Each structure stands twice: as structure tokens, then as C-alpha cells.
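This follows on from our talk about sequence and fold. Please put the record directly below this note.
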Amino acid sequence: MSLDKATVKNIANLARLEVREDELDHLAGELSNILQFVEQLAEVNTDGVAPMTSVAHMELPRRRDEVTDGNYPERVLANAPERIDGFFVVPKVVE
């Protein structure tokens, strides 16, 4: 697929990019090459190939879902400029 100057200008407009008139021919060629490469990738037979989330097989480290830090509200609230009944007091921001 090859792109013409009008199509490149339209793509630049949609992407909110300012492209000078003398750059349109070069960009048309570059974008056409990219589209040809994508078309070439579409020809590859991927039947039976599982989707990948990463190129390297790895498992994310997991931790137990348990509370490990807390149960000392006085220490947590020690630096609060204002507190009431164990809660932070903040200014109202919604009218």
C-alpha cells in the first residue's frame, strides 16, 4: 500500500502534527514502508501459537495478602496537622 501526500496530510492533521509541505513526500514513503512491513507480518501463519505477554517466560513475584504494617494509629497520626477521633482532618474540597 502506498500513501499519497493528501493521505499523509490527513494523518498528520488527525494526529495534530504540523508537517511542512516539503516533508510530505518523505513521510509518505516512510509510512508506506511501515504499512508494507505490517502487511508482510499479516502473512505469517500463527495458527497454534499461543499469545505472549513477554518474550521471556517469567512469573511475577507474589506475596501473601496480609496486613503487615499498622495497628498503631497514634504513630500514623503523629504528624497530622489536625485529627479527630483517630482520623485525619482535611479541608473540604467539594461544594
